């Protein structure tokens, strides 16, 4: 991973506006595992009471913030 660069973490509780990942640096098996874990997380959130509403609200807030910029 000689082309990888370290980006310092944000303050706790702060969200990133943009995340850039060079997926060519990630081995296929790691990338596939990450994708599967992400889908599992989304499905778990949607199964929770109010999960869909919470996710929709977060997405709407992110889109509104992007539109305001």
Word description of this protein:
- The chain is mainly alpha-helical and 69 residues long.
- The chain has one domain.
- 55% of the residues lie in helices and 0% in strands.
- It is built from 2 helices and no strands.
- The longest helix is centred in the middle third of the chain and has 20 residues, at 28-47.
- It is flat and about 35 Å long.
- 0% of the residues are buried.
- The mean pLDDT is 83.
Question: What's the short version?
Answer:
Helices cover 55% and strands 0% of the residues. By secondary structure, it is mainly alpha-helical.
Q: Helix amount, in percent?
A: 55-70%
The mean pLDDT is 83
Helix and strand content put the structural class at mainly alpha
Radius of gyration (Å): 15 Å
Could you give the order of the helices and strands? HH
Query: Quick one: biggest sheet?
Result: none
What is the strand tally? 0
Q: What low-confidence regions span 5 or more consecutive residues with pLDDT below 50?
A: none
Shape: flat
What key attributes describe this structure?
69 residues; mainly alpha
Sequence-ordered SSE layout with sheet pairings:
Elements: H1 28-47, H2 51-68
């Amino acid at each position: 991973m000689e082309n990888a660069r370290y980006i310092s973490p944000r303050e706790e509780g702060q969200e990133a506006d943009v995340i850039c990942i060079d997926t060519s640096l990630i081995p296929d098996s790691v990338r596939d595992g990450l994708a599967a874990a992400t889908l599992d997380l989304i499905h778990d959130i949607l199964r929770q009471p109010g999960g869909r509403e919470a996710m929709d609200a977060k997405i709407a807030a992110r889109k509104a913030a992007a539109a305001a910029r």
